[in-house]
């Protein structure tokens, strides 16, 4: 009886390994090519201006936990804007103020990336590990858990479907000839039971527009080293397209 059980386990394990291998092969085929996508939470429309006013000041920051070559990215963006007819100008001479802050770069599940996009500018970020592999579920009297575990381990060891995401908040200021009055309302948490409300107002000469850009790169066994250049390229392309 014991020998029969061992034979049964061996046969089912072999089947599980075969099925997991097929699932892994299907995943590898479906995600073999690098897929890079970029989406914006809000579209920004700016009024057309004369060539003399096509001047922009760029402020590029990175507050993510991954290092970026910010000067190189800013230079790449400056080159793209210049190719579109814009001139990079000092702050006090620019008609447009383009402020960029990279908030997060790393592995993220597609659903978490979509959630970050839906949160819009300044929205909270919810991290989630990039998920995983396809594995079958098996049911058997006393051996189902073992077989399913073997299949999962085998599939895990074969391929992983990996997604990296870059989340960036963007604020575009357009200089106005007229005074612009802005009012800010903020609720600030004080401890666990106290909330402080702050109201401020100021007058300036900038009309501000805000959006969030989320770029994702997906591929089987994708490495950060390979994903980063693609994500950066998509970000620069989207930023240049705002103006």
Automatic annotation (TrEMBL):
<keyword id="KW-0732">Signal</keyword>
<keyword id="KW-0472">Membrane</keyword>
<dbReference type="GO" id="GO:0009279">
    <property type="term" value="C:cell outer membrane"/>
</dbReference>
<dbReference type="Pfam" id="PF05818">
    <property type="entry name" value="TraT"/>
</dbReference>
<keyword id="KW-0564">Palmitate</keyword>
<keyword id="KW-0998">Cell outer membrane</keyword>
<keyword id="KW-0449">Lipoprotein</keyword>
<protein>
    <submittedName>
        <fullName>Conjugal transfer protein TraT</fullName>
    </submittedName>
</protein>
<feature type="signal peptide">
    <location>
        <begin position="1"/>
        <end position="25"/>
    </location>
</feature>
<dbReference type="InterPro" id="IPR008874">
    <property type="entry name" value="TraT_complement-R"/>
</dbReference>
């Amino acid at each position: 009886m014991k020998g029969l059980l061992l034979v049964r386990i061996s046969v089912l394990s072999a089947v599980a390994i075969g099925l997991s291998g097929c699932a892994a092969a299907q995943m590898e085929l479906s995600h073999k090519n690098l897929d890079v996508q970029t989406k914006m939470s809000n579209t920004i429309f700016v009024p057309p201006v004369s060539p003399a006013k096509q001047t922009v000041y760029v402020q590029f920051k990175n507050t993510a936990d991954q290092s970026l070559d910010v000067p190189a990215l800013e230079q790449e963006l400056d080159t793209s804007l210049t190719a579109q007819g814009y001139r990079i100008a000092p702050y006090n001479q620019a008609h447009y103020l383009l402020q960029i802050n990279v908030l997060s770069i790393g592995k993220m599940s597609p659903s978490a990336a979509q959630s970050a996009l839906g949160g819009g500018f300044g929205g909270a970020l919810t991290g989630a590990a990039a998920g995983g592999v396809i594995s079958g579920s098996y049911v058997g009297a006393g051996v189902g858990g073992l077989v399913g575990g073997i299949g999962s381990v085998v599939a895990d060891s074969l391929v992983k479907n990996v997604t990296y995401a870059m989340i960036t908040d963007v604020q575009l200021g357009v200089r106005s000839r007229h005074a612009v009055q802005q009012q800010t309302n903020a609720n600030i948490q004080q401890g666990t039971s106290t909330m402080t409300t702050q109201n401020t107002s100021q007058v300036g000469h900038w009309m501000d527009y805000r959006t969030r850009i989320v770029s994702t790169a997906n591929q089987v066994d994708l490495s950060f080293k390979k994903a980063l250049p693609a994500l950066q390229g998509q970000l620069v392309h989207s930023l240049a397209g705002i103006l």
